[in-house]
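In the laboratory, one determines a bound structure by crystallizing the protein with its ligand and collecting diffraction data. In a computational setting the workflow is compressed into a single prediction: the sequence and the ligand go in, and a structural description comes out. We illustrate the idea with guanosine-5'-triphosphate.
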Amino acid sequence: MMIQPPPPGSIIQIDWHRSADSKEYLSRIRSKKQRRRFGLLEAPVLPPHLSVDTVRYKVFISGKSGVGKTSLAARLAGVDIPNMHYETTGIETTVVFWPVKLRENGQVLFFRLQLWDCGENALRRFDHLLPSCKEQVDAILFLFSFTDRASFEDLSNQIARASDPSDNIVKLVVGTKFDLFMHTDVTERDVRKFQEVWGLPVFRVGGDVVGGFGEVAPLLNALAERLWYQDCMAMGAAQPGPVTVTEARVPLPFRP
Ligand SMILES: Nc1nc2c(ncn2[C@@H]2O[C@H](COP(=O)(O)OP(=O)(O)OP(=O)(O)O)[C@@H](O)[C@H]2O)c(=O)[nH]1
Ligand SMILES: [Mg+2]
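The predicted complex, in structure-token form:
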């Protein structure tokens, strides 16, 4: 079933990370000026009056070798991106927490996104890696690099390999190295055409990680909003409404 996602910002408050109201929550995923890193079993510690539900999702990052999958995982976690390309030799996971405020009832939720980053050459070499990346996956980020036309042309293969039209996995496309616009190999027109054909949103990222939430908020919010919407639909709610978290998504058993 192909679900048409709602217009951006109709379910969550997309500018919430800029409001005073979000400060207390965002301070839990930051220490000093840096983003806090979370291990597999760690979570932000909230005082009782801020206690909120956490919803957990698995996100697979797909794309040609060198497009910047490992870099995107670092960027979303607020860590400096690697300067050099070191092929990822297997699967690496990164946990990102992101607080979101629902429009409907003003409820705050922590999204726990476990990013699965697998080196493309390892993925091709070892047959068991792709199935474990795809297993119970909630969302896939399909990456291409603005400086590598072949990676853009490879998107349809990536999409066919990791998903099928009837699944209800959230799918987003991310164009990396947007900072290297002098060397761009993929035009705005190409991107627009792709969006028309595939109906998938395309995000642009690039440059050094400067810290702060502004640069990652659009992508994290879009991901959170679609994941939440997908869950509400799967619950059979006609409208994504005030569904309680326990109904919508029973916390999963620990999945490393
Ligand atoms: N200028 C610029 N360079 C980037 C960006 N993202 C990634 N890079 C560079 O691209 C190179 C490859 O990035 P990786 O993240 O290691 O690539 P990967 O997709 O994980 O590659 P595999 O693990 O081999 O599949 C590195 O040298 C990064 O510094 C970006 O947004 N801007
Ligand atoms: Mg990598």
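The first helix runs from residue 23 to 26. Keep in mind that any predicted model is a hypothesis to be tested, not a measurement.
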